[in-house]
Amino acid sequence: MSGSIASYDQLVRQVEALKKENSHLRRELEDNSNHLSKLENETSDMKEVLKHLQGKLEQEARVMVSSGQTEVLDQLKALQMDITSLYNLKFAPEVAGAGRSAEDSPPPPAPHRDVSGDLGRATFRMLEELDRER
């Protein structure tokens, strides 16, 4: 009989340990869920910022075309392509669930040596920061 009591006590201890682990995992899941929600909100905010910037760039492009400043327009097109490439490089594999390796990814675009390059580098840094937080 004492063997079955010891066995029962051991089972009770195991159940208590499992309950503690379950509680810990629930808290961790909740924390991860909250963090994911925060990242989704930040990503949504960044998309809005990028849409706003794209709208401003398109408006500037229309003004430049009408005034004959095509050289700057070419720089803006390159910047837009850089931003799109960076976005695709950072987010497309994860969204699609492709899980591509680094060797399958295209190399990051070369930075510009003008004002638009500063914007491209700043955008790249923000994307990197979001990626680290994720």
From TrEMBL:
Q: Where is the Adenomatous polyposis coli N-terminal dimerisation domain?
A: 6-57
Q: Which Pfam families match?
A: APC_N_CC (PF16689)
From the UniProt entry, list the residue stretches annotated as the region Disordered.
24-43, 96-134
- Which domain of life does the protein's organism represent? Eukaryota
Q: Which GO terms describe its biological process?
A: cell fate specification; cell migration; negative regulation of canonical Wnt signaling pathway; negative regulation of microtubule depolymerization; nervous system development; pattern specification process
MF GO annotations: beta-catenin binding; gamma-catenin binding; microtubule binding
A GO CC annotation recorded here is: catenin complex
The name this protein carries in UniProt is APCL protein
Protein encoded by which gene: Apc2_1
